[in-house]
Amino acid sequence: SRVGAHQKHGASLVRERQMEFADAHQYWNHPTFLGSDWDPKNYRVDRKALVNEAGGAWGTLGDLATWRIVGKPYSVSEYNHPAPNDFQVEMMPLYATYAAYQDWDAIYTFAWDATGTGVKNDQYENYFDMARNPSKSAFFPIAALVFRAGLVPPAPARAFLEAPVDLYEQMMNPGAAWATLGRAPQPLRERLGVRVGAEKLSFAASDGTDSVFQVREGTGGKIVQVDAPAAQAAVGFVGGQTVSSGELTATFERFGQDFAALMAASRDRKPLASSGRVLIALGARFENQGMGWNPERTSVSDNWGKGPVMAEFVPARIALKTDGPRQVYALDPTGARKT
Q1: Percent above pLDDT 90 for the chain
Q2: DSSP string over 79-108
């Protein structure tokens, strides 16, 4: 049983509170089809980044948090930042760290398309494919480590919507309920959820202002930074900026769209400064060769280009404070050491 979060149907909150767990779906910046549904040539994927929504309701991620049913395990079984988009590299770092911070129980991505014999394994060919799109798949190992090992701790502060069973007859989603109460949820400051069964609409909040998330202005847009002892990140418009989260510092020159994602996580779960094994990932734009971009860079029609996928070079100096000497290796796609 699934909460169609993108459908904004509040009846799901009543339905799933009787079940073993609750589930939701959401897509940031889903393709808009300008003619018939799913026309592969006539669509638009808006050229926008989720980091620029940080500090407020925080788009799809903030929305997903408001649908969590308090006291139930919570999964998100579909999520994506669809291609083509200059900023899709933000997806996995934000998704994994935020899901851990909100204390969700399982996260999925949609979709892992076919690979292997008879398939073009070196290029992505649609909005949702994760398997052949390195802007997402390159961050899978470190994102899985951060989420599954709990390297970003849950938010200590909580804010729960107390809702009557017939909430869905009054308004279509928890966001509207929060607005009615005049108290906006703060997804980067507190764990969010909804408890169904109260006599009247209200909210319950606990104190606490500390957060592992910080939002700052970058070069033409925002930067979201994550600072936990064993996992740190900087995502957004970092070109021409120096960003520092705990032991991780990076100085970026200006480049391309000035947009990149950087993550560092401890494989042995120790703080980064004392860890014996740290995984670091850095990426910006990943594109097929010869993609048929329109002038607004909101569509490639059905011309997805050809492989192999090309990675944009990110000019940066990265420093990691440690309690002693360390060796640094480049890893191949299987995770094995190279140079």
Answers
A1: 77
A2: EE-PSS-TTGGGHHHHHHHHHHHTT-SEE-
For the chain, report the end-to-end CA distance as a whole number of angstroms. 48
Q: Are strands 260-266 and 222-228 parallel, antiparallel or unpaired?
A: unpaired
Three-state secondary-structure class, residue 1: coil
* Torsion sign (Cα): 293, 294, 298, 304: negative
**How many angstroms separate the Cα of 182 from the Cα of each of 175, 198, 203?**
11, 18, 10
Going through 247-327 in order, the beta strands assigned E by DSSP cover 248-252, 260-266, 278-283, 286-289, 306-311, 316-320
Whether residue 289 has pLDDT greater than 90: yes
Both tokens of 98, joined, read: 């935020």
Closest CA to 156 of 206, 215, 225: 206
Q: Which two tokens stand for residue 243?
A: 């960003």
Handedness of CA 65, 69, 71, 76 (dihedral sign): negative
Contact present, 124 and 135 (Cβ < 8 Å): no
Which DSSP category does 53 fall into? G
pLDDT recorded at residue 208: 67
CA distance 113 to 186: 35
